[in-house]
Design goal:
The radius of gyration is 42 Å and the shape is rod-shaped. The strands form two sheets. It has a seven-stranded mixed sheet, sandwiched between helices. Strands 2-3 form a two-stranded antiparallel ribbon. Helix 7 crosses helix 9. Helices cover 41% and strands 19% of the residues. It folds into two domains: 83 residues; 233 residues, BirA Bifunctional Protein, domain 2, CATH 3.30.930.10. It is an alpha+beta fold. The protein contains eleven helices and nine strands. Belongs to the class-II aminoacyl-tRNA synthetase family. Phe-tRNA synthetase alpha subunit type 1 subfamily. It catalyses: tRNA(Phe) + L-phenylalanine + ATP = L-phenylalanyl-tRNA(Phe) + AMP + diphosphate + H(+). One of its GO terms (cellular component) is cytoplasm. It is an enzyme of class 6 (ligase).
């Protein structure tokens, strides 16, 4: 029996089978235990020798069990450590790193250019009211130009700003001239999207108000910006255009040659001299707040441009919808240094 038991112990492949062997031989009703129970039936003179013999068998089995158990535990631990082993000589996995979005980078470049020209950067709210987005900008509710800016209206009667121009009004109401500001931010239009139109995009608004500010100042400022963005030999073109809050109004374009040798005029934004009705509306709002009227007789210019259009132009991006589709393959191309 001892022989048999020791063999079974050596052959037990895991702790569970070892427990079964233990139960079979030395458990409460195991073979060895039962053998001990038969001692009482032996004649007294044989009991001692038989008892010693059975106990020796039991001790041998116990020792073998203990040893096998320790060996099995060690093997299990070794297997686990092996499965968790790390090859420290393998090359590491590079984690992808994030970075500012291309449009944020262009807005930052624009802000740097204008900060260098002495402008203050201010931001406005994306939720506006029609007084600031339209009325004070000389766009009354019945004005056909309101159709130009198809609007997302909120249930409370407010709206998502359709351009950054309402900040012209807000800033002038709170500040006295002279002033020079740029306003970067998101704007929203309820329109069908296509390769050059998104329903959410960005604008950078500019506003300068002072004494005898002229159209020549406006042209010089836009040209300076275009050269800062596209290089010192960039040509800029102004064409008459209509905005209710400017008189006169214009659109400006740059002559752009891309690396493939293609070139054309590309419209970047609108601009013009601030319409006297805007100054009047601002003074009305100031007066309603108990502030003095300070804008009558002042002159100023304003402009608004789209950084998405700049990015498409500069980097040959064929479709505006790439910017906000969040495709890492597109975004990752504009992580590193930009040309
Ligand atoms: C305006 O929004 C005027 N507020 C700009 C302005 C400011 C004029 C101050 C005069 C004085 P407009 O709707 O043309 O104008 O938009 C200005 C620029 O925003 C466009 O030239 C274009 O670059 C960009 N833009 C307009 N609509 C979209 C659109 N759906 N998706 C992407 N960019 C757009």
């Amino acid at each position: 029996m001892q022989e048999e038991a020791l063999q079974a112990i050596q052959a037990a492949p895991d702790l569970e089978s070892l427990q079964a062997v233990k139960t079979r031989y030395v458990g409460k009703s195991g073979l060895v235990t039962r053998e001990l129970g038969t001692l009482g039936k032996l004649p007294p003179e044989e009991r001692k020798a038989r008892g010693a013999e059975i106990n020796a068998v039991r001790a041998a089995i116990d020792a073998a069990l203990t040893e096998r158990e320790a060996a099995l535990k060690r093997a299990a631990l070794d297997a686990r450590l092996a499965s968790e082993a790390i090859d420290v000589t393998l090359p590491g996995l590079g984690l992808p790193s994030g970075g500012p979005h291309l449009i944020s980078r262009i807005l930052t470049d624009l802000q740097d250019i204008y900060a260098g020209l002495g402008y203050t950067v201010v931001e406005g709210n994306e939720v506006e009211d029609d007084q600031h987005n339209f009325d004070a900008l000389n766009i009354p509710w019945f004005h056909p130009a309101r159709d130009l800016w198809d609007t997302f209206w909120l249930e409370d009667g407010r709206l998502l700003r359709t351009h950054t121009s309402p900040m012209q009004v807000r800033y002038m109401v709170d500040h006295t001239p002279p002033l020079k500001i740029v306003v970067p931010g998101k704007v929203y239009r309820y329109e069908a999207t296509d390769a050059t139109h998104e329903s959410m995009f960005h604008q950078l608004e500019g506003l300068v108000v002072g004494e005898r500010v002229s159209m020549a100042d406006l042209k010089g400022t836009i040209a300076e910006m275009a050269r800062g963005l596209f290089g010192p030999r960039t040509q800029v073109r102004f064409q008459p255009s209509y905005y209710p809050f400017t008189e006169p109004g214009a659109d400006f374009s740059v002559w752009w040659e891309n690396p493939r040798g293609e070139s054309k005029w590309l419209e970047l934004g609108g601009c013009g001299m601030v319409h006297p009705n805007v100054f009047r509306a601002v003074d009305d709002l100031r007066e309603a707040q108990g502030q003095p009227r300070v804008y009558e007789g002042k002159t100023g210019f304003a402009f608004g441009l789209g950084p998405e259009r700049i990015a498409m132009l500069k980097y040959g991006i064929p479709d505006i919808r790439y910017f906000y589709a969040n495709d890492p393959k597109v975004l990752a191309q504009f992580r590193g240094p930009l040309g």
